[in-house]
Specification:
heterodimer; A: two-stranded antiparallel sheet; 2 strands; B: alpha+beta; 4-stranded antiparallel β-sheet
Chain lengths: 106, 164
């Protein structure tokens, strides 16, 4: 099963933040490490897709006053999700292994 | 000067604010209206009310003062509850319309969390602008996802109809 770059980032963030991976923390985590901030909408659209594929599962968390009484939704990676992520990262590693970067002026 | 309580915090503890004698107050369940009649108000009193309003605001995180009208000789100040500092409702509605309920709650909660933080850091006006910016940039991916799901279900239904 192929994963998009954003899906890879999301799965890696979910593993890194376990067990506190929810929308805001995931977004901050990705921004801190990649310098790119995916929109809240694209995060949830991708998480919805990953959940449908069975790669992540969600559980409702606490509602706080600053969130307007809305509950957090925590995400955890499933075994099939870990497998898909590992295969996806291995594919990139295989493709980039031993690559000689030509034509790029440093 | 007379001493009056002007509202209470979440725990119900009355908050004391000193108001000038000439000041009249109207108490409503979710807000406190304070006004000074035109003939009584003078520049000094107007300035005094402005200062007290600012002090009261600093003392409480759940009442927002809004100086509604500072006329030639009068002032009308309203203290309201947090409702006026809430994130934009229309933006919330747009997001919730495109997501399943659990995700809709989570995404609006996430935006509210950022809004609360940014309100304190940058002020409400900028926080509201950022909230709208995040909503607009979120709409397209969510809309695309919703359309994709609808088309998928449409294709499934069409296939089932063809078969039976």
């Amino acid at each position: 099963m192929e994963l998009t770059t954003l899906e890879q980032h999301l799965l890696l963030a979910i593993i890194g933040l376990h067990p506190n991976a929810y929308g805001v923390s995931i977004q901050d985590h990705i921004k801190d490490r990649t310098g790119r901030e995916p929109s809240t909408g694209s995060i949830y659209a991708s998480l919805d897709r990953l959940e449908e594929k069975g790669f992540v599962k969600s559980r409702q968390g606490e509602a706080t006053r600053e969130r307007g009484g809305k509950r957090k939704l925590y995400f955890t990676i499933t075994a099939p999700g870990q497998r898909a992520l590992r295969e996806s990262l291995q594919a990139i590693n295989s493709l980039s292994h031993g690559l000689r970067w030509k034509g790029a002026a440093v | 000067m007379s001493e009056d309580s002007a509202g209470s915090d979440d725990t119900g503890t009355p908050r004391k604010v000193v108001f000038p004698d000439k000041l009249q107050q109207i108490w409503l369940p979710d807000s406190v209206h304070v006004f000074v009649s035109h003939q009584d108000a003078d520049h000094e009193l107007v300035e005094s009310v402005k200062r007290l309003t600012r002090d009261a605001w600093k003392a409480s995180d759940h009442l927002t003062p809004q100086i509604m009208k500072v006329a030639h000789h009068g002032i009308y100040t309203r203290f309201t509850t947090l409702d006026d500092r809430d994130p934009p409702k229309l933006a919330e509605f747009l997001l919730t319309a495109l997501l399943k309920p659990s995700h809709a709650d989570a995404i609006t909660g996430d935006l509210n969390e950022r809004f609360a933080k940014e309100s304190q850091e940058f002020g409400q006006r900028r926080a509201t602008r950022l909230y709208w910016a995040r909503t607009w940039e979120s709409l397209w991916p969510l809309l695309r996802r919703a359309i994709g799901k609808a088309l998928k279900w449409g294709a499934v239904i069409a296939t089932v109809r063809r078969l039976f």
